[in-house]
Each structure stands twice: as C-alpha cells, then as structure tokens.
Design brief:
about 675 residues; alpha+beta; 22 helices; 20 strands; disordered N terminus
C-alpha cells in the first residue's frame, strides 16, 4: 500500500510540474502575443504620426517652362539643387551606398549590429555615442535633430529613422539623402556638388568622379580636393575598393577609375549677376500669397516652383534692352511678353538694372499708354457701332464738346500734321488723334472702358474724350495681356506665371488651372489685326523696324511727353515695351522711338526657330477689294485698290464708279487666299 501511495505522489508531483510548464508556456506565448501586438500597434502609431518639421533649411528652386533651373536660393545661403534619383548617375548612388550604408536596402532604418559595435567601442574608450549610423539615421539627424553626441539623441534618431522607413520608400529616402548631404564649400546635394567640382550634372558623372564625391561627406575639410587633393584621391581609392567588396564593380574597373585623371573645376567666387531678377521677385510674392506663408518660410521650405518663364526669351530680352539703351544711361524700360494661346508669361524685365533699382516697372500703373490704347477704342467701335476699316473722319484741328456741351476738348496731332479725310486703316497707321477721339465719342467712352475691363485692364479710367488718347495710366503687364486677346482670336487666357509648386518631398502644394474667356467674336479681332499690321508698313509709325521683322506682326506704337510704347504680337507672342524716365522728365525725339526696335529685335530673335505664321482667318470675315479714296468697292475705273477685311455684312455694297466691271472683286472667305496675301507674303519674305 505504501508503495502505491509513493507512486501516486510521484504522479501527483509530475502532474504539477507539467501543469506549471504548460502555464509557463501559456504565459510566455501570451507575452509574445502581447509583445507582438504592442509592436504592431506601436508601428501603426509611428506610421500614422507626422514626421517633425525639418530643422534643415533647404533652398527653394525656380524652374523655367522647359524645366531649366532659373535660380536656387534661400536655405541659409546654401548652394543646393534638387534632382530626382533616376537622374543621378548609377555610379554615384552605388558609391554612396558602398561607403555609407551597404545594407541600406535590407534594414528597417537602423542596423543592430552596427549599434552594438559602436556601443563596444564607446565602452572601451569611455566616449560618447560613436558612429554615423545608417543613411536613414543620418537623414533623420540632419533633418530633425542636432549633432550632439548623446544617447537620447541617438534614440530619437533611431525612432525617426524607423518612422521614415514606415512612411517613405527606400528610393525616396536615398533621394532625399543625396540631395541634402553636405559636400563642403556651402554646397548641399549631389547636383550642386557635381557642378561645383566637375562642372556637370549628376547624371553625367563617371565612376572615378562618383567615387571622389562619395568620399567627401565623411570629412569635407579633409577630403575636398580643393583643400587636399592627395587626401581626396586616397579616399577615392577607399570608396572604389568598398564598391568592389559590395559587388558593384570589378577590381579591373576600380583600378581603371583610380588611374583616371580628373578635371576638377577651379573654385570661383559666387556670381553676383542673376537671370530674371524682377520675375523672381514677382514669383516670390505670388508663391507666398498662394501658399499663405511668410517670406522666411518661402526661402527655407525647399520648394520647387515651376514657372512659365522661357529662359531663352528672358536672356534675349535682357540682352536687347542692354544693347538698345546703352547710349542712354538714365533711361528706364519695362518689357512683358506673354504667350497669347495660354497666358504664360515668357519674359519679364522690370528695369535696366536690378542692382541699382528693384522697382518692377512691368507692373507700374503710373505710365500713360498713349496711342497704344487706341486699338481698344477701335475694337469697341467695330463691335458696338458697326464701324469698318473704311469708316471716315476728317483729320483737322477740332474742338470736341461733351458733358451735354458744358465742356470742350481740343486735341492735336503729333507735330501738328493732319491728313484731311482718312479711313480707320490710315488713322491707325498714322496714329491720328482726331480720328481716335471721334471714334471714342461715337462708340461711347463708357463702352470703351467696359471693353478695356473685359480685356483685363483694371487701372482707373474715366469716360472722357481724352480716354481715346491713352491718358489714363496702364501697366505694361496689362497691355501685353490685353493685346494677347487680338492674337488669340478674341479669347483671353488669364496671365499665368506659376504652373506648379512642390514641397521638398515632391508633394504638389499648388497647381495652376488658368482660365479662358471669350471676350469678343474672333472676326472682330481679326479685322483689328489686319489694320494694326499697317503700323509696320511704309508710312506707319512702326515702319522704322519693318526691315527687322520677318513674319506677320501687328501692333501699335504710343508716345506721350514722358512715355514711349510699342505693344505688338504674333500668333505666338504678345509683347509690351515701355521706355521712359522714372521721374517727371520728358523724353526726346530719338528716345521716343526706342521701344519699337526693342520689340522688333526681341520678337524676331525669340521666334527665330519658329516658322512665320499667318493670322488665321475665322468665320464671319469677308475680304474685298476697295477703293481707298472712296471706301467703296473697287472696279477697273478706280486708279488704286487694296484688299480689306470686313465683318461679314458690313462690307461696302457700292462701287467707286458706274463704269462696267471686267473682273468682279474677289470676296475672300476662310480657307481661300487672295492676291493681297501673296503680296504680303512676298513683302515679309523680302524683308
């Protein structure tokens, strides 16, 4: 019996042991499950939390319409440019990975083995935290933390590194790292470093150049070739060897790269001249308003701003102005050029020297446009009163009464020249003031102002007879945009300077959606275009530059005592040029003719690679031969004739005489051509 009791006791104790073991296993498993659950919750929490605001000031960048860099600025004066990872040479990516973080694509933001090694070294030498850590940790430290060597900083660095890995792809992290790493000489990012050291893009780096650059961040003061070429080349060999060990290149390739003679650019002082300075200031004001940020933030946010500017057109504008105004050191100018088809601002010059004066005259609403305002008057008359190109008034000294006869206005023509009975084409070509005031009063000054408002002119105006002569100030920006409507067949494309703004991570903060509005039927703007082409014909106010223009161009000059204007356009470009003095000082006779040459040379050089285009004939236009002396249809009895465009239904119905007609005058409709077009084409070709 006692033996049986012993056996039962043993079984009892054995059973208790098994139970405790099962309990232990259950407890351990539960702990593991809870630990895993806590880990998952923690990771989800880290993923959901926004990363801190970066403490690393990054330069904002401006790009032109073709993606060319206009300027990189801000970022505490750093020289920095951003370039996508796919546009970097593979060799610079591989060299950086090999020397900085060989297991980058295999870890989750930190390397436990590396941390352990650093800890052992720290304990052995009784030093503070050692080791740069992974690429992700380096990026986290540069963006969010200080560089103090403490365990708390290291823990935060690791936390942010894991958070970055959860919220960003490996390629995004590597791209940011390569665009922000310091290469010495106030230069951040591989693109700026490539240009500084080798005068080329990061896309074009060779293996030897990549290895040298990848070695610099370890210690720019020691490994920059500008400080110590021998050290730099020694570091380059170390990088090449690590690339061999990592399997990126062969030993033969490493040896060949080490022997390659490098062409390192001389270290030059930063250039003080900048391109498009007035445009850059305009973009700054626009961007801060669009994003609702302070100017300080704008400079340090690392924005990428894609603009409509065409660097080629801008450089031509600046060169032409510099050349044309060289003999006149105190004379000022402004130029605005807009693509009428989409409203893109292609060039902007706000003055002859930004270094001397930063005031942007392109937006100055203090200058009288003079006769360059007249096309808006004539467009209103064509639309509201069915005026035609052969509507006639007598050009003679005239006193006009208005305000129910209580007031009078007596304008005069330039140099006191009058032309007797003239039609609208002659009035535009000769810039006759008497004809313009007659037209404005007939059409109604209120209607003229309404038309100007619809065309985008917001400057204050009053319904007075003098309105026809451009006495109310308008900015060059407004004039370039308004004339773009003539070029774009009656459609106003709202002026646009910023296409898109991205933050440093490539997220779109703003994207333009330019508006378009039909202001007037295309037939009216086409007729006005045909009339304004005569400004550049013999005897016209723009005839001095007709030999420069090799394509169909329409426009209007304008001159006051203090201002000279040329506003003109082709199907691709609408440009306003103003010339004058900043203070109340009259311009001389020679100075009053400088706007047209600037316009002509800028237009031709900018469109040099664009084939000349005729202005398209829209529906609702008819072209007939008329007798200039009477404004009636021409026949064989008329000594002279010319083809003229009319709004369909307003063309003359009577002939200049009752003589028999041998050949019926040609009526031109869209899609067909007449003799005068051939003559025009021959004239443009010959010029």
């Amino acid at each position: 019996m006692s033996g049986q009791r012993i056996t039962d006791a043993d079984e009892f104790h054995h059973s208790r042991k098994k139970g405790r073991f099962r309990t232990f296993l259950s407890f351990t498993f539960t702990c593991l499950i809870l630990g895993a659950a806590c880990g998952i919750v923690g990771l989800l929490f880290m993923r959901s939390q926004a990363l801190p605001v970066s403490k690393m000031a990054a330069a904002s960048e401006l790009y032109d319409v073709h993606g060319k860099l206009i300027e990189a600025y801000g970022g505490g004066g750093k020289n920095s440019q951003t370039v996508p990872l796919q546009e970097m040479a593979p060799s610079i990516v591989e060299a950086t990975l090999a020397i900085e973080d060989r297991s980058f694509y295999d870890h989750y933001g930190f390397d436990p083995k590396g941390i352990a090694r650093a800890a052992i070294v720290n304990l052995q030498h009784m030093s503070k935290v050692q080791g740069a850590g992974t690429i992700t940790q380096q990026l986290a430290r540069n963006m969010y933390l200080t560089h103090e060597r403490t365990w708390s900083r290291k823990l935060k660095e690791t936390y942010y590194a894991v958070q970055m890995e959860l919220q960003m792809s490996k390629d995004q992290i590597l791209e940011q790292y390569l665009n922000q790493i310091y290469y010495g000489h106030s230069t951040y990012g591989i693109q700026s470093a490539s240009q500084l050291f080798f005068g080329k893009s990061a896309h074009d780096l060779t293996l030897a150049e990549s290895a040298l650059l990848a070695g610099i961040p370890k210690g720019p003061r020691y490994y920059s070739p500008y400080y110590d070429l021998e050290n730099a080349l020694g570091r380059q060999k170390t990088v090449l060897q690590t690339m061999v060990e990592a399997g990126y290149i062969t030993q033969q390739e490493a040896d060949k790269a080490a022997r390659e003679k490098l062409k390192i650019m001389p270290l030059e002082a930063k250039k003080t001249t900048v391109t498009a300075p007035y445009f850059r200031d305009y973009i700054r004001s626009q961007a801060t308003e669009l994003l609702g940020i302070e100017e300080k933030e704008y400079e340090d946010m690392g924005l990428r701003i894609f603009t409509t500017l065409d660097l080629n057109a801008q450089q031509i504008a600046e060169e032409v102005i510099r050349k044309q105004l060289e003999p006149y050191p105190e004379l000022q100018t402004a130029l605005v050029s807009i693509d009428p088809r989409n409203g893109y601002v292609k060039a902007m010059v706000g003055g002859r020297s930004y270094a001397d004066n930063q005031y942007n005259r392109a937006f100055a609403s203090t200058r009288q446009p003079g006769s360059s305002f007249k096309p808006i008057v004539y467009l209103t008359a064509l639309k509201e009163k069915q005026f035609t190109p052969v509507s006639r008034f007598k050009s003679e000294p005239t006193t006009f009464t208005y305000d129910q006869g209580r007031k009078s206005y007596t304008p005069s023509n330039y140099d006191g020249k009058y032309f007797d009975w003239i039609d609208m084409r002659t009035a535009i070509a000769k810039s006759d003031n008497i004809f313009a005031v007659h037209t404005a009063l007939e059409a109604g000054p209120d209607r003229v102002i309404d038309m100007a408002r619809r065309m985008g002119i917001t400057s204050p105006m009053e319904p007075l007879p003098s309105l026809a002569l451009g006495v109310f100030p308008v900015s060059p920006y407004e004039m370039a945009s308004a004339f773009g409507i003539f070029a774009n067949q009656g459609v106003r494309a709202a002026p646009t300077a910023i296409l898109r703004i991205e933050d440093r991570r490539g997220r779109v903060l703003y994207e333009a959606s330019p508006s378009e509005e039909t202001i007037i039927e295309p037939a009216y703007t086409y007729v006005m275009t045909q009339l304004m082409e005569s400004v550049f014909d013999q005897g016209g106010t723009g005839s001095r530059v007709s030999s420069v223009l090799k394509r169909p161009v329409a426009g209007k000059t304008g001159t006051t005592n203090t201002d000279a204007w040329m506003v003109g356009y082709t199907p691709e470009l609408s440009t306003a040029v103003w010339v004058g003095y900043d203070k109340d000082r009259n311009i001389g006779n020679v100075e009053s003719h400088l706007a047209a040459p600037i316009f002509a040379e800028f237009t031709e050089r900018t469109l040099e690679s664009v084939p000349p285009k005729m202005f398209p004939i829209p529906e609702g236009v008819v072209n007939v031969y008329i007798d200039p002396a009477t404004g009636k249809l021409a026949n064989d009895s008329c000594p002279k004739s010319r083809m003229e465009a009319f709004i369909q239904g307003t063309e003359p119905k009577e002939y200049c005489s009752q003589e028999p007609v041998k050949d019926e005058p040609v009526k031109q409709v869209p899609g067909k051509t007449g003799g005068s077009w051939w003559n025009d084409l021959k004239r443009w070709w010959a010029s």
